[in-house]
Amino acid sequence: MQISTLLEPDRIACLQDSSSKKRTLDLLSRLLAGALPDYSEGELFDSLINRERLGSTGLGNGVALPHGRLAGLEAPLAAFVTLSNGGVDFDAIDNQPVDLLFALLVPEESTDEHLQILARLATMFSDAEFCASLRACTNTQQCLDQISHWDTRQQLSA
Known about the structure:
The protein has helices at about 20-35, 40-55, 110-125, 130-135, 140-155; strands at about 10-15, 60, 65, 65-70, 75-85, 100-105. By secondary structure, it is α/β, with parallel strands linked by helices. It has a single domain, classed as Mannitol-specific EII, Chain A.
């Protein structure tokens, strides 16, 4: 699966200001809600925050992968945010602030697909050069281009 297929430009927000984990999850929920008219922002937020209560999705190195499952969702989709204010405390494994957040929602019954996408995201965001390229982006299209470029490089090397 190509990660870029989970995103649309209207679900990417570059260089946002946020003061907390909760506000950042709220921002991601708003971005996702635009693509999911059958769900409220509150339902999406609850899905993400409920997963966070099980343990932080902060991977370290400034990256978090908040995710959740939704009953009735047809296919996985995502939102991506970069933060401009040095990041927020996300209870990450390395105790460092998070400034790159990729939120994923999957259908409730998609266990294998969910794990495969998370594994691919973990590989993507463990690439320090890739993360640096995202942090250098100043607009939505640049972020999407970087993610698409990463997908293409992975396909070519497979």
